[in-house]
Amino acid sequence: AGTLYLVPTPIGNLGDISQRMADTLAEVDFIAAEDTRVTLKLLNHLELKKPLISYYRHNTEAGGQAVLGRLLAGESCALVTDAGTPAISDPGEDLVALCARNGVDVVAIPGPCALITALAVSGLPTGRFTFEGFLAMNKKNRRAHLESLAGERRTMLFYEAPHKLCATLEDLAAAFGPDRRIALCRELTKLHEEVRRTTLGQAVEWYAENPPRGEFVLVVEGAPEPEEQEITLEQGLARVEELRET
Ligand code: SAM
């Protein structure tokens, strides 16, 4: 069988095209693209001509079978989405699982990814984090999910569309409190790249006055450690005594 290559593409800056990205696109037999028009622009930029087929959220079933069939027949395929790393909050996850189930090799090429770029620049702890992707559209589900994250200690990352940002910030402030720190990473790698490091309460106020534009990754500080209870030596010894008696 052929190999499926996951080929990341720039999240806004064509300078982020890597040699390996370009070589892989040049070498594969065909490309599966989320939006063939977007990918055509990239191929034109690279002066490449390749057969393209569509693989997008609403045809993952039929599209997946079509790609798998060609891979099993020995062709190699590059999966490309509109921006960033395929399979991260965009079509691709299902295709990788399908290939894995059918014994087809998958090779992921490292490259641009909005979440890792945002985490790195956020100024918040990066050692442990949780990626939450896009929140549910449904207000009730979204709030319930955020409530369940209120005690999460790890840094949390969310993807968000600009027209939903204000509502999401309000929900975040309600669930985590207005003092929790947030880094709003906007238009990363682009001309109007901006990182706003503030609190949830201040972010709600700022964006109510200044309507958000562009693409955002929200990086939210985790919940504080519960304060350790200090006890005196006498209290400690009394506790040991107590345990001994039981
Ligand atoms: N697969 C992509 C990746 O690896 O980052 C993510 C695809 S997801 C459909 C698109 C979301 O990623 C946007 O809504 C936004 O939250 C985030 N995003 C993509 N490009 C961005 C950029 N240049 N700046 C900030 N956020 C970006």
From TrEMBL:
GO terms for molecular function: methyltransferase activity. It holds the Pfam family TP_methylase. Keywords: Cytoplasm, Methyltransferase, rRNA processing, S-adenosyl-L-methionine, Transferase. It is found in: Cytoplasm. It catalyses: cytidine(1402) in 16S rRNA + S-adenosyl-L-methionine = 2'-O-methylcytidine(1402) in 16S rRNA + S-adenosyl-L-homocysteine + H(+). Its main location: cytoplasm. Its EC number is 2.1.1.198. One of its GO terms (biological process) is methylation. CDD domains: RsmI. It comes from the Bacteria. The keyword Cytoplasm applies. Residues 3-203 form the Tetrapyrrole methylase domain. InterPro entries: 4pyrrol_Mease, 4pyrrol_Methylase_sf, 4pyrrole_Mease_sub1, 4pyrrole_Mease_sub2, rRNA_ssu_MeTfrase_I, RsmI_HTH. NCBIfam families: 16S rRNA (cytidine(1402)-2'-O)-methyltransferase (TIGR00096). Belongs to the methyltransferase superfamily. RsmI family. Catalyzes the 2'-O-methylation of the ribose of cytidine 1402 (C1402) in 16S rRNA. This is Ribosomal RNA small subunit methyltransferase I. It comes from Flavonifractor hominis.
